[in-house]
Amino acid sequence: MVKTKVQALILAGMLIFGVSQAAMADMLSLGVSVPVKQDFKADDAEDVKSTSGFMLEVQLPVMVGLAYESYESKLDTSDEPTINDFSITTTMYDIFYTLDLSLVSFTLGAGVGETAVKGDLEKYFKKGKASQFFWRIGVPVMPLFSIHAGQHNVKSKIEGEEGVSMEMDVDSTVTVLGVSVGF
User: Fold this and answer.
1) Would you tell me how many other CB atoms lie within 10 Å of the CB of residue 29?
2) What does each C-alpha distance from 8 to 2, 16, 39, 136, 183 come to in angstroms?
3) Domain boundaries, position 16
4) What's the structural domain count of the chain?
5) Strands 172-182 and 145-159
6) Cα separation of 140 and 74, whole Å?
7) What does DSSP say about strands 105-119 and 167-169: parallel, antiparallel, or unpaired?
8) Predicted TM-score of the model (pTM)
9) pLDDT tens string 82-139
10) Which CATH number belongs to the domain containing residue 117 in this structure?
């Protein structure tokens, strides 16, 4: 029984020491991510041809960070001859918390922002409010550099302008890849 308590205390001490060492490793971390893929959840959603944009992240010494993201997904409208250009843009402001362990880091975050229709149908829709939660896993590749991958789960609806009784459900999942550098 005493042996089990001693082992538990040693394990807890190693975990706390490992977490505190990782937390003190970076005084400030800057990162950039790119959206690799965006999947809209609605059954009648158009296929995504391409997704482009960026996410900028700043992690403070207390393992809390702030981020700004802006990306656009061009939708495939080849089956609609009257629509040539149709895309959904997303802009978000995020806050996140990162737990750095020696071999991996885990990030959880949330954000708020807006989505909008761009292109041929832009004049028919208002901007929609958006919210999201996200997770990310990072792995150090050199003492000050790490790579990360994650998933953002966006929830948003875009309503039609006055006199237009359309509404678009643009809930989506965004897969991201990125790099961070610590100072």
Assistant:
1) 23
2) 10, 12, 44, 29, 34
3) 2-182
4) 1
5) antiparallel
6) 33
7) unpaired
8) 0.79
9) 788 889 999 999 999 998 887 899 999 999 999 999 988 888 899 999 999 999 999 9
10) 2.40.160.20
